Amino acid sequence: MIRVLLLALLVVAGCSSGTPTAPADRLVLRLSAEEESRQPVEAVRGQVIELTVTSGKPVEVHVHGFDVRGDADAGKPAVLEFTADRTGTFDVEAHPDTLLARLIVR
Q: pLDDT digit string (tens) for 51-62?
């Protein structure tokens, strides 16, 4: 009887943990190329990320690990939208040398 109960618990636990969770709502980030930061920003794999970066001078905005980049200039922000389709830690930079955030996708 105990073996049957334990087996039933294992089956139920295995079924519930295999169900994927839906990604959270869209993650909206508004950053400035004039303000370097090492601030961690957390996202969930599959989540849509909308990134807006303002700058007083021409810069290229790039999210390492993802094929997304854009250009920002005075009065013209870079607006990038992508799906976080892989897990890990990724730098968000305004090239050539400003770290804007660390994106952590779980």
A: 999 999 999 999
Rounded to whole angstroms, the Cα distance separating 12 from 54 reads 49
Token pair 């943990």 is at which residue? 17
First to last CA, the chain: 40
Q: What distance in Å separates the CA atoms of residue 35 and residue 2, rounded to the nearest whole number?
A: 61
Contact present, 27 and 49 (Cβ < 8 Å)? yes
**Encoded tokens for 75:** 């009065």
The pLDDT, as a whole number, for residue 78 is 97
The residues, any chain, with a CB within 8 Å of residue 39's CB and separated by 6 or more, are 101, 102
